[in-house]
Write a structure and sequence with these properties.
205 residues; mainly alpha; 2 domains; 9 helices; 0% strand
Amino acid sequence: MLKIIIPSIMLLPLTWLSNNKNMWVNVTSYSFMISFLSVMILWQNDMNILNFSLLFSTDSLSSPLIILTTWLLPLMLLASQNHMKKESEQNKKVYVSMLVLLQILLIMTFSANELIMFYILFEATLIPTLIIITRWGNPTEQLNAGLYFLFYTLIGSIPLLIALIYIQNLTGTLNFLLFPLTFSPFNQTWSNNILWLACMMAFLI
């Protein structure tokens, strides 16, 4: 996963070190290169991961989500150039940096093997998203949209955090790779339905 995460991180210095005239071209071209590079992770066996890291890896479920994330950034940059014409050069670079940061966090979220790390990274994506909504959203609705977005996401994620703590206490681990080695299977009781609902609520919202 480092071959996608590290090039994505390099987009940040590229944004700020590029001159104002070529900033959009440089960042968009480089992000398209990352998009084409990410397509390679799609061809892998269902039972194999691309690396042996305990923290980050990809499988047949996370690979399409990562590829979608990497392709969204250059498309958003192309769609935003006309909208950002009247903004100052500083605001343009901050906007692009927020989009790049959002891509980095989403890639790390979809490739996380540890559930609590997945939760932290997923919640971290709220910060750049909230800044983009409240700063560059529709002026008449941006504050309300930002408040609703933050309220619903945080309310939905609290049951998920409680469920993750419960699973940690029950199994002793939150790592996907170590789940098959645990000796504490879930009991078939009505509380499992509540646990399932708590885990799904954040994603349903």
